[in-house]
Amino acid sequence: MNDYQQPINRIYEFFAEICKIPHPSSYCENIRKYLKQTAEIHNLKYREDNAGNVRLDRKNAVFSETILLQSHMDMV
What we know:
Elements: H1 5-19, H2 29-41, E1 44-48, E2 54-58
Antiparallel strand pairs: 1-2
């Protein structure tokens, strides 16, 4: 396995977990709960706003640049 394959496989593992969670349009509570639990397991800081959006941040991360990934919680 090359250096790039391991992180890519981990992404697919998370994607497979997410696909198992029912999260139809306009009902995101299950996926919202998963995101918050995953944040806690991996020592990530998270915030949820009044609209139900969840933001995850890596605590004490030292990066020269900020990386932002955005997605929808519902499957449409």
